[in-house]
Amino acid sequence: MASHLFIVAWNRPDLWDYWKRWFAGVENVEVILDRRRGERRQPSQVNDPERRQEERRHRTDIDDELQSMGFAIVSR
């Protein structure tokens, strides 16, 4: 398993190709294309209380990095 995850914005396949080639053969780095396209959860029709205790995404700055630079690096 890679110890570093290199996430590339879904709208930047050119960067994905570049970084995939750059890190080819490096065992501890995995380059992936971000598959998220916005919030997937739909608003509830019923006034249900929120069940989650905390947000699942641990690094909220990833979205900012993906938007500004086109990629983000995450250590596992």
What composes the largest sheet?
3 strands, mixed
Strand content: 15-25%
Low-confidence stretches: none
Shape assignment: elongated
Number of separate strands: 3
- Number of helices, counting only DSSP H or I runs of 4 residues or more: 2
Q: Going across the major beta sheet, what is the strand order?
A: 2-1-3
List the helices and strands in order: EHEHE
Distance between the termini: 9 Å
Helix content: 10-25%
| Rg on CA atoms, Å | 16 Å
Mean pLDDT: 82
Structural class: alpha+beta
Write the SSE topology.
Blueprint: E1 4-8, H1 13-22, E2 29-33, H2 61-68, E3 71-75
Parallel strand pairs: 1-2
Antiparallel strand pairs: 1-3
Written overview of the protein:
The termini are close together. The protein is built from two helices and three strands. Helix content is 24%, strand content 20%. It is α+β, with helices and mostly antiparallel strands and 76 residues long. The chain has helices at 13-22, 61-68, and strands spanning 4-8, 29-33, 71-75. The radius of gyration is 16 Å and the shape is elongated. It has a domain at 1-35 and 59-76.
In short:
The protein has 76 residues and is of the alpha+beta class. It has helices at residues 13-22, 61-68; strands at residues 4-8, 29-33, 71-75.
Salient structural properties:
76 residues
